[in-house]
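User: I'm putting together notes for a lab meeting next week and I want to include a structural view of one of the chains we've been expressing. I don't have a solved structure, so I'd like a prediction I can at least talk through. The sequence is below, exactly as it appears in our construct file.
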Amino acid sequence: MRDMHDACHIAVPAKDLDEAVEFYVFGLGAKMARRYADRVTFDFFGDQLVCHLSDDVAEEAVMYPRHFGVSFARAEDFDRLVRLVETRKLKVLAGPAVRFEGTAERHRTIALVDPSNNVLEFKNYDDPRLQF
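Assistant: Thanks for the context. Below is the predicted structure for the 132-residue chain, given as structure tokens.
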């Protein structure tokens, strides 16, 4: 199965590749791996994110049913991301907030919106065994 050298592949539409680079590289700190006329590939927290140039982007940002992001095992990594979002004034759809207070599934979450209305959720569970 997957080992530490494998990467999950995520592909999303992008209306403008320059905006995608600005958000993912200069906003979130992802590394740009490759860029072509029709797509750009990023190292997105150790996984592969590809933004494909497309006219078929969402008119508005909606969390469900489709979003992607990172479930941080360590609280300090989530805290660092929230500080980055605040410092760089990235567009927030929801949060930071606590979900499922009083249950084993309690976690902190923040949802962001990229320039093409793709929704990204970042979270951290109190019990890291529940991140899957």
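A couple of points you could mention at the meeting. The chain has a mean pLDDT of 95. The chain has one domain: 9-131.

User: Perfect, that's what I needed.
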